[in-house]
Design goal:
By secondary structure, the chain is of the alpha/beta class. It folds into 2 domains: about 80 residues, Winged helix-like DNA-binding domain superfamily/Winged helix DNA-binding domain (Arc Repressor Mutant, subunit A, Orthogonal Bundle), CATH 1.10.10; about 160 residues, Rossmann fold (3-Layer(aba) Sandwich), CATH 3.40.50. It is built from 14 helices and 5 strands. Strands 2-1-3-4-5 form a 5-stranded parallel beta sheet, sandwiched between helices. Helix 12 links the parallel strand 4 and strand 5.
């Protein structure tokens, strides 16, 4: 099991059995107490059998409760160090926060999201996607709502270096793009939940063409992850007062940057001329400094 216990619980919550959900609630409510608890003690607190605690641990990807407890202890220690350095309380933005508090909290948690994304990213999968894109075939990016912003960012970046990347906020056009994919195409689907129906439909259409399909999602057990050839995970912690799903969007944009820069490395010999050409085309559209509003 790689990554954080708390994040794994949030991701697995919809699929847990009732008894396992009871254990999850206890862990989430007081993780510090769980670190020092035995299987029997945790089972008693949750009102379930010891076997349910073991099943809960395995549902999160651990060999058993001792492995979960060890990972949780490491996570709590790391989080405590983060909070001590930042002097920012864990959790949500509150109506009583000052402007300075709000800015500090958002900055800290977005930086933490990017660090967590980098730590949990499947680097061999990232390399495989970058290698395929670098060959110069068609790239198609899908996404709806905030995830559509990440798709557009990827398209803009790849086109800037001369690569063909299609995307559209229109879900019908996404299906058109999917239908026109082929075995040389790379299809990258963005959905933090992994359950966006429009994105799932577009991936299904593209998969029938033989294209390489890539899921960029926060849920490794989601329908999107299951329906794609490769997974680039974007873990993030959503809070109520986060306009436009900032945490998930930052994780997606981080993956876009990681992927784009790796593709740039692989196409380094052609990179300079492509950037120079696009820069020369755009520069005349800029006003001289000091004359803009």
């Amino acid at each position: 099991m790689d990554g954080d216990v708390i994040e794994a619980i949030r991701t697995a919550a919809p699929r847990l059995r009732p008894a396992e959900s009871s254990v999850a609630a206890v862990v989430m409510d007081d993780p510090d107490a769980v670190v020092g608890a035995t299987v029997a003690e945790l089972a008693a607190r949750a009102g379930v059998s010891q076997a349910s605690v073991v099943r809960f641990s395995k549902a999160l990807g651990f060999a058993g409760f001792p492995a979960l407890r060890m990972q949780l202890a490491q996570e709590l220690s790391r989080n405590a160090a983060d909070l001590e350095r930042s002097d920012i309380a864990e959790g949500r933005l509150n109506p009583s926060d000052s402007l300075a508090d709000m800015v500090s909290k958002v900055a800290f948690h977005e930086a933490r999201t990017i660090e967590q994304t980098a730590r949990m990213l499947d680097l061999p999968a990232l390399e495989a996607v970058a290698q395929r894109i670098a060959r110069g075939g068609r790239v198609i990016a899908f996404g709806v709502g905030a995830s559509g912003l990440a798709a557009m960012d990827l398209s803009q970046k790849l086109q800037r270096i001369g690569l063909n990347c299609m995307t559209s906020p229109d879900t019908h056009m996404q299906l058109v793009h999917a239908a026109l994919a082929d075995a040389d195409s790379v299809v990258i689907a963005f959905s933090f939940s992994g359950g966006t129906r429009d994105v799932l439909h577009a991936v299904e259409v593209a998969a029938r063409t033989g294209a390489l399909t890539v899921a960029v999602t926060g849920d490794p057990d989601s329908a999107l992850a299951a329906g794609c050839d490769l997974l680039l995970r974007t873990p993030a912690r959503e809070a109520t007062l986060r306009a436009a799903a900032l945490a998930s969007r930052m994780a997606q944009l981080a993956v876009v940057d990681f992927l784009f820069l790796r593709v740039g490395q692989l196409r380094f010999d052609d990179l300079g001329s492509a950037l120079d050409a696009t820069r020369d085309a755009v520069t005349p559209q800029h006003l001289p400094r000091g004359r803009g509003n």
